[in-house]
Amino acid sequence: KKNLVIAIDGYSSCGKSTLAKALAKKLGFIYIDSGAMYRAVTLFFIRNHVDMSSDAAVEDALQHIELNFHSRDYESHITLNGEEVSDEIRLMPVSENVSEISANKLVRHEMVKQQQRMGKSKNIVMDGRDIGTTVYPHAPVKFFMTADPKIRAERRFKELESKGNNTTTLEEVFENLAHRDYADTTRKESPLVRAEDAIILDNTDLTQAEQLDFALEHVKPFL
Ligand code: C5P
Question: Where is the Cytidylate kinase domain positioned along the sequence (predicted)?
Fold first, then answer.
């Protein structure tokens, strides 16, 4: 069987994971949420007060982190050293720190290495910021997703609300997205940028079904 990688990159809260999950389900591929890995690392760094200005401290921390995915129905359930952290990594303390921590060169090298290993001889859909540029530059199908920032903030706010959050305001969500987009696109180490061969998908006015159809059309030739 073929070993096909579908790379999905784009701004924060653009629906990357929703499309990635739908594609994986439809095609029977494995879905890998690379953002969840950076979020889990961030949670570990916050809890352990890791000094980001010290390479030795960062290296040491990375050696004490073991991440695992449990695919239940293509939701991404991630464990950090055996602890289920899927919900906690979506909350504000992690969201507010993840872009700084994921800009660290040592953190990125370790995550990229693990992400490349996870896709070896498997059919996968991976979403993130640098999948089509750095992790899988030779992926045959790449999407670059974008949407109106206000719509993105509203979608993420509703998602938080539906999970019982009532402390974070829509404005805070909007600010956080803007901040992460800025940090992600301007960092030195593999910044968020569209790979030259990535197909742009602006989903501001598209339903989830329309996005899936659009993506499937582009994937079909490679199946
Ligand atoms: O995808 P998600 O929004 O959960 O990612 C959280 C953060 O992790 C991003 O804002 C970005 O800073 C970082 N990230 C990254 N590279 C990836 C995936 C996520 O730097 N491949």
Answer: 6-219
CATH number for the domain harbouring residue 174: 3.40.50.300
Asked if 4 contacts 123 with a C-beta cutoff of 8 angstroms, the reply is yes
The string of pLDDT tens digits covering residues 79-99 is: 999 999 999 999 999 999 999
- The answer to whether 77 and 17 have CB atoms below 8 angstroms apart is no
Is 212:19 a contact under the CB 8 Å cutoff?
yes
Number of domains in the chain: 1
CA 36 to ligand 1 center in whole angstroms: 8
**Is the Cα dihedral 69, 71, 72, 75 positive or negative?**
positive
- Say if residue 12 carries a ligand binding annotation: yes
Against a cut of 0.80, is the pTM above it? yes
